[in-house]
Write a structure and sequence with these properties.
The complex is a heterodimer.
Chain A (H helix, E strand, L loop, with lengths): L8 H9 L5 H14 L6 E4 L1 H17 L9 E5 L26 H8 L3 E6 L38 H8 L5 E6 L5 H7 L2 E4 L19 E6 L2 H11 L29 E5 L9 H16 L3 E5 L7 H16 L17 H12 L2 H14 L5 H23 L4 E5 L16 H5 L6 H6 L3 E8 L5 E8 L4 H15 L9
Helix pairs in contact in A: 2-3, 5-6, 9-11, 9-12
Chain B lengths: L10 E3 L2 E14 L38 H13 L7 E2 L2 E4 L9 E4 L9 E6 L5 E13 L3 E3 L8 E3 L6 E7 L6 H18 L11 E10 L9 E6 L2 H20 L7 E6 L4 E7 L9 E2 L6 E2 L2 H9 L5 H12 L3 H9 L1 H13 L3 H23 L10 H12 L5 H14 L3 H7 L8 H14 L1 H6 L7 H11 L6 H12 L2
Parallel strand pairs in B: 12-13
Antiparallel strand pairs in B: 1-2, 2-10, 2-11, 3-16, 4-5, 4-15, 6-7, 7-10, 8-9, 11-12, 13-14
Helix pairs in contact in B: 2-3, 5-6, 6-7, 6-8, 7-8, 7-9, 8-9, 9-10, 12-14, 12-15, 14-15
Classes of the chains: A alpha/beta, B alpha+beta.
């Protein structure tokens, strides 16, 4: 039955509907795969009993002809999503064995549509990281390796568990979150498809907050169609999140296969970095050529404030994080380290509970919001953000339908290889993705090729606000042209 | 209305007169069913932590959603303070660690409050008024409560109050002495209670004030201020200002300087003491709350609330003076508390002829009813004499059925025993005698019994009063005094 794990979500849906196999069989196949892949450390909590109960319930519904759009489809859930009765930690020691009494809106919608939860997926602590190395549960392994090498590589981050599990066929799709590239970068590192929808498209209610004005939920899946199916269930207005947008959710799957003829694709010159590897450059040109062959028109565009995006992001995101993470104080839930008085209890709890990267960002955020520094840092960064947003608006106003860029400046790297001495080296991973979060736009990463060492590389498409459909149409063109990429199993 | 006074009572020091400058931040708990950003109940006095939602407890991933009723209440209050309403305002996070603040920040409004500048007219002794400027009003979350008496080694926290909406109403530094400060809080409280936007219950902490006090020589620039925190009694506010002003003057006159600091008032010792200095002040790291969009509404929303605004004390006072010729003082007394005004107006509603008897009704409410209530330490809301009964008594006087003197006896009976005043007048024979022949008989009898005095009246007209008294006495007070007077005059040829 292990074959079942290699199906795409769309294929599995067909098989379930035709009763070729049951959701329980499909779920069991994935549970076995998860068990066999523990070395990847993608799952931080497996929920087999719950998974089988949900699968049985889905099978009942399928039998009665009441199947929802995702009936019986086994998924992995990033540990940032609160899951009722199932430990939720954001992969931080400070949350300890926190078990929510509530279900996040996005996961609740997935269960409403019949999906099955296999367990909780590893991620960078509080989603702060680009390699999934900051998790309190340890790093995640990428199912991809360099040709002829046994070195374990990172799957990217922060949704490293999600990307790794989807690429290694441990689940048919996964929820993820993206604050500066946390869906798209790991998708690119693992040859999976990841979409960060428009800010406000998915509810943030019940997702552990990192940086509220940048955080967005989205799926990671093995095909563009699969990601479209998942996003349709995940998206939608939620009165419990006032920043979620009250706009209708289209049938994203209908955008797959739609002609892209006549679409104007912007190629931003500022994304051509000094010292960019030639293979990234080549991948980008190839992608452009595929779109052109499909009838799209390519235009060079300018996004002049791009170079300020990363520094501005590393002010705004830590500022919000420093405040969002203030609630982890050892008073009401999670870890508590006693002290002589309340101040000492705070200090001991937070020193013990937060990892180094989280502490660093809390410190940066506290600093940039301090009296006397606010105007120079936070306020300025917000002004930069406005300019970045305007760059994109100007571009779209000239008739550009989407923008094509590389997803990452390199392929996956080894665990412990980057950022040890200089955190900025790690931050540079997000150079092509943060602008999209700063502007609140949708962005999709689609696998497009391999580097010289056989590691996957991805391209990114950036769209107009709430126009994820165009990204799915264009993404599928790249997918068709580039073909599918599956890692050789070594675990 | 008299001209506004800007000067207050100066304080005499060793080096001459000093002027006190006061500004206030009043925290008023918004009257609403649920909290500012969560659906939890705002009910007072529940079991600890029984009115706490996931949002109030700051569980991971929880998000605030603005309670629209609290927004309406803030706008109503702004309108009641004659203030500018900002159609766009922003919620900010005020970051600080304390166990009464589960989020680690308070959601407040920093740079863009919902309400801007306004003004409150404050009545002072001697019929003077002072116009106190309002700087701003903003919405914010209240904090929870720490309980230190539950365990010898630990503190407990009750989050019932956490997240309840507060309006912080900031005055301009327009207040010049303790009397003005007390009058300002009294008036503000009255306006809030009329509007129904805050119950004004200072004992429960629904209304608390931070008082900023500085002193200067008249005409000099503003001095360094100290903030006296968390005052929940109007009397204590007055005492604290008096003490604090003298403390500062003493320091300055001895050549010292005032440290800008936060102080607490100790009502037992009657003094203020330092709580924390400026150096110990928190850096709150305010920034716009990214979980909340800016709060925006249109002018039509404001206009609709304005149209439904109740009549406020100043308008009511003006109307009472105009319609019923009340003195400004009497009108102020009636409108000072919403309940008093409500009582007076329900008396008015029941009067047979309010144009004729409105003023008399006011006198009765103020002198007889309030006088008696004060004496017994009772509140207007549990008055033994209700509006209907008092209106009946006033009607009986106005129509000439009973005299004012009998009315006082009747009021006493109603106070003690209750009952319908009109029926009581009948059953107890208190009706005024206007039957001329009956009165004439009494008058004739008295004149016949006192021939000497009758003869003297022509020379000493003032002795007519003695005859009036005798007749009234003989009639048991029921004779119409005017008729008695007229009859006596004609019979005695005065």
């Amino acid at each position: 039955m292990t074959d079942l794990t290699s199906l795409t979500l769309a294929e599995a849906r067909k098989g379930l509907a035709a009763k070729t196999f049951t959701s329980l069989e499909l779920t069991d196949a994935h549970l076995s795969a998860i068990e066999a892949a523990r070395v990847l450390n993608a799952f931080v909590m497996e929920t087999p009993d719950q998974a089988r109960d949900m699968a049985n319930a889905a099978d009942d519904k399928i039998a009665k002809g009441e199947a929802g759009p995702l009936a019986g489809i086994p998924l992995g859930i990033k540990d940032l999503y609160a899951t009722k009765g199932v430990r939720t930690t954001a992969c931080s020691k400070i949350l300890g064995n926190f078990v929510p009494t509530y279900e996040s809106t996005v996961t609740a919608q997935l269960w409403r549509d019949g999906a099955v939860m296999l367990g909780k997926l590893n991620n960078d602590e509080f989603a702060m990281g680009s390699a999934n190395e900051t998790s309190c549960f340890g790093p995640v392994g990428n199912p991809w390796r360099r040709e002829g090498s046994n070195t374990t590589l990172v799957p990217g981050g922060s949704s490293g568990g999600s990307a790794s599990a989807v690429a290694a066929l441990l689940c048919m799709g996964a929820t993820a979150t993206d604050t500066g590239g946390s869906i798209r970068q790991p998708a690119a590192f693992t040859a999976t498809v990841g979409i960060k929808p428009t800010y406000g498209r998915c509810s943030r209610w019940g997702i552990v907050a990192f940086a509220s004005s940048l955080d967005q939920a989205g799926p990671i899946a093995r095909s563009v169609r699969d990601s479209a199916m998942l996003l349709r269930s995940m998206a939608g207005h939620d009165p419990k999140d006032t920043t979620s947008a009250d706009v209708p959710v289209p049938d994203y799957e209908a955008a797959i296969g739609k002609s892209v003829r006549g679409m104007k694709i912007g190629i931003p010159k500022e994304y051509r970095l000094d010292g960019m590897p030639a293979e990234i450059e080549k991948l980008w040109s190839e992608g452009a050529a595929w779109l052109k062959a499909a009838g799209a028109e390519l235009v060079e565009v300018s996004l002049p404030h791009t170079k300020y995006a990363l520094p501005a992001y590393y002010i705004v995101a830590p500022a919000e994080a420093s405040s969002n993470l203030a609630r982890y104080d050892g008073v009401r839930y999670g870890l508590r380290e006693q002290g002589k008085n309340i101040i000492e209890q705070y200090e001991n709890t937070r020193a013990e509970g937060f990892g180094a990267e989280v502490r660093r960002r809390v410190m940066i955020g506290t600093y940039v919001l301090s009296a006397g520094y606010y105007d120079a840092y936070y306020l300025r960064a917000q002004k930069v953000r406005t300019l970045i947003k305007k760059d994109f608006e100007d571009c779209f106003a000239r008739g550009v339908d989407a923008i094509l860029t590389p997803a990452t400046p390199s392929a996956a790297f080894g665990i412990g290889e980057k950022g040890g001495a200089d955190p900025v080296e790690m931050y540079l991973n997000d150079i092509f993705t943060v602008t999209v979060n700063m502007a609140g736009l949708p962005g999709i990463a689609v696998p497009a090729g391999k580097d010289a060492q056989g590691l996957p590389l991805g391209l990114q498409l950036i769209g107009r606000p709430f126009d994820e459909e165009t990204l799915f149409s264009l993404g599928e063109v790249i997918e068709q042209a580039a073909g599918r990429f599956t890692p050789a199993r070594w675990w | 209305m008299n001209a506004s006074v800007r000067q207050g009572k100066l304080i005499k020091g060793q080096t001459g007169d000093w002027e006190v400058v006061i500004g206030m931040e009043v925290h008023a708990q918004v009257t609403s069913q649920s909290k500012l950003f969560s659906g939890a109940s705002t009910e007072f006095g529940g079991e600890p932590n029984s009115h706490v939602s996931l949002v109030d407890a700051a569980m991971p991933g929880m998000l605030p959603v603005i309670n629209e009723e609290c927004v309406r209440q803030a706008v109503r209050t702004g309108l009641g303070l004659n203030a500018a309403i900002n159609l766009r305002s922003v919620f900010d996070r005020k970051n600080y660690f304390y166990p009464d603040s589960p989020q680690g920040y308070q959601i407040s409004q920093y740079k863009s409050p919902i309400v801007g500048e306004g003004e409150v007219v404050v009545e002072l002794d001697g019929g003077k008024v002072a116009n106190i400027g309002i700087e701003r009003l903003h919405l914010e979350q209240d904090a929870g409560k720490l309980l230190h008496d539950q365990s010898p080694t630990m503190s407990f926290v009750d989050l019932n109050r956490c997240g309840v909406a507060l309006m912080e109403i900031v005055s301009k530094p327009d207040i010049r002495d303790a009397e003005q400060a007390k009058a300002y809080v009294t008036k503000l409280r009255s306006i809030l209670r009329y509007l129904g936007t805050c119950d004004g219950d200072m004992e429960k902490g629904s209304l608390r004030a931070d008082v900023n006090v500085s002193v200067r020589k008249p005409g000099a620039p503003l001095g360094t201020r100290c903030e006296i925190k968390n005052m929940n009694s109007i009397t204590f506010i007055g005492q604290a200002i008096e003490y604090e002003a003298r403390r500062q003057i003493e320091i300055l006159e001895e050549g010292g300087a005032i440290d800008q600091e936060t102080r607490l008032y100790d009502p037992n010792k009657g003094e203020t003491r330092s709580m924390r200095s400026k150096e110990e002040a928190h850096d709150y790291r305010y920034f716009p709350d990214p979980d909340l969009l800016p709060l925006e509404f249109n002018q039509a929303f404001v206009d609709a609330l304005k149209a439904e605004l109740p009549e406020l004390p100043d308008q009511k006072k003006t109307r009472f003076v105009a319609d019923f010729s009340l003195s400004a003082y009497d009108a102020s007394v009636l409108v000072a508390e919403r309940e008093s005004a409500v009582f007076y107006e329900s008396v008015l509603d029941r009067l047979a002829d309010r144009a004729r008897d409105g003023k008399m009704a006011a006198n009765w409410v103020i002198n007889e009813l309030f006088g008696r209530l004060n004496k017994e330490g009772r509140d207007i809301t549990d008055s033994p004499v209700n509006a209907e009964q008092l209106a009946a008594i006033v009607d009986l006087i106005g129509e000439g059925t009973i005299s004012g003197k009998i009315a006082k006896d009747l009021f006493e009976i109603v106070w003690q025993e209750g009952g319908d005043p009109r029926a009581l007048v009948e059953s107890r024979g208190m009706k005024q005698v206007t039957d001329l022949s009956a009165i004439e008989k009494v008058v004739d009898d008295i004149i016949a019994a006192n021939p000497d005095k009758a003869a003297q009246v022509k020379d000493k007209p003032q002795s007519l009063g003695w005859f009036v008294g005798q007749v009234m006495k003989a009639s048991g007070g029921k004779a119409n005094p005017q008729s008695v007077n007229d009859l006596l005059k004609s019979k005695l040829g005065v």
